[in-house]
């Protein structure tokens, strides 16, 4: 797709930014409904989304800095202005820390707040991945001959494949997975999609995102099982 087809005078309106904004708006709407369902002021959702957006963008950018530390050290300002974009798990960590602080300030129990915002995260991620697809930000997959393979000749990061080469449209895979899940198993979705992504393998033949996904799956599984055991003992 063409990432910058809209302009206000000489200023381009990036499709990725549009989808990012739509993701935050949808997340705010879902979170508001969940807060209201749990007996809290639904207006808290708008503030939580702002806190999460700021923390998420900062965290996603800092993760890029850590991933490319030598390049950052050589030219910090140039890297921050013109370097790579954002990393999901950095955004998740930064957003989680910011929203945790917001819950503390508003006296919202952390588990209640996290439960209310969990569906919003999955939906926002689904919409955000459509922005990745529209912009061609480089997170496509390996080459493929499958009929739904795609080329990204207008990608914002450049397209170095020869004519006729197609790759897995992994942003669409993730968008579909997060939209279908909408509440749980986000870690499992990312873990599976990573097998056809071009990201480098870090350990055990797995990518960095897969290792983080496995960690989150283990933590989430342990938490669910421990809560079930606690409830059974209490009963």
Task: Kindly state the percentage of residues in helix.
Answer: 55-70%
Strand % is under 5%
Lateral strand order in the biggest sheet:
1-2
Q: What is the makeup of the main sheet?
A: 2 strands, antiparallel
Q: H/E element string?
A: EEHHHHHHHHEEH
By DSSP, the count of extended strands is 4
What is the rounded distance between the termini?
A: 56 Å
What overall form do the CA principal axes indicate? Answer: globular
Number of helices: 9
Which oligomeric form is depicted? Answer: single chain
Q: Which residue ranges are poorly predicted, with pLDDT under 50 across at least 5 consecutive positions?
A: none
What's the short story on this structure?
The chain has helices spanning 15-37, 44-67, 69-74, 76-82, 88-106, 110-135, 170-181, 186-193, 208-234, and strands at residues 6-8, 11-13, 201-203, 206-207. With 235 residues, it is mainly alpha-helical. It has a two-stranded antiparallel ribbon.
How would you portray this structure in words?
It is built from nine helices and four strands, in the order ββααααααααββα. It has helices at residues 15-37, 44-67, 69-74, 76-82, 88-106, 110-135, 170-181, 186-193, 208-234; strands at 6-8, 11-13, 201-203, 206-207. A hairpin with a 2-residue loop joins β3 and β4. The longest helix has 27 residues, at 208-234. The chain is globular. The protein starts with 5 loop residues before the first strand and ends with a helix. The mean pLDDT is 81.
